[in-house]
Amino acid sequence: MAKAPRSLPPSVQRLIDAFAALPGIGPKSASRLAYYLLRSPAEQSMVLSEALRELKLRTRLCSVCFNITEDDPCEICADESRNTALICVVEEPLDVTALERARAFYGRYHVLHGVISPMNGVGPDDLKVNELLSRVSSGGVTEVILATNPTLEGENTAAYLQRKLMQSWPTGLSVSRLARGLPVGGDLEYADEVTLSRALEGRQKMT
Question: With contact defined as beta carbons under 8 Å apart, do 134 and 144 qualify?
């Protein structure tokens, strides 16, 4: 009895599986991406391949703030015009990009690379927490801004960091949290409990 033919060539299936392993991409999206590359000129696939190769060869983590960089220290940490007394703690490198776009912060950053999440097996030792404490202990830091996301894990991570920082440096160090509120154009109906709570706590008197 003859074997049933494969539904897809192995090389195509491997590419689909590779795309599907990426966050936010399901099987259908992975298939569409794979078939798009199949139909596109070979040069486009080569550009993608080279970009991925360069990504792994050239990027690293900054030894100071742990942001993604090609140079160590990164551009922000090497900028002598930045205020070294201010450290803004974020969850991921993309958060640095978002804050830099706002052009409202001129200190330094510290990237945790995640949040404390016991259910997912992520504890403080799995993040860049000890490195943050070491940076503060070296002196010269007057304020640490906790800019983790307003999720349950983000709030718990911020609370943990606040306790650790204030236990070690009860005086001479200010620990602050980004203000939380409703986004412009957002509906109360779709706001989560943490956002609504923060919006109420940070309400302002109307003149």
Answer: no
* Ordered DSSP codes for 159-204: HHHHHHHHHH-SSS-EEEE----PPTT--GGG--HHHHHHHHHT--
**Per this entry, what is the length of the chain?**
207
Whole-model pTM: value is 0.80
Q: Which domains does the chain have, with CATH numbers?
A: 9-42 (1.10.8.420), 79-177 (3.40.1360.10)
Kindly report, residue by residue over 68-112, the tens digit of the pLDDT.
999 999 999 999 999 999 999 999 999 999 889 888 889 999 999
Say if residues 99 and 147 touch (Cβ distance below 8 Å): yes
Q: Which residues does residue 89 pair with via DSSP β-bridges, in sequence order?
A: 110, 146
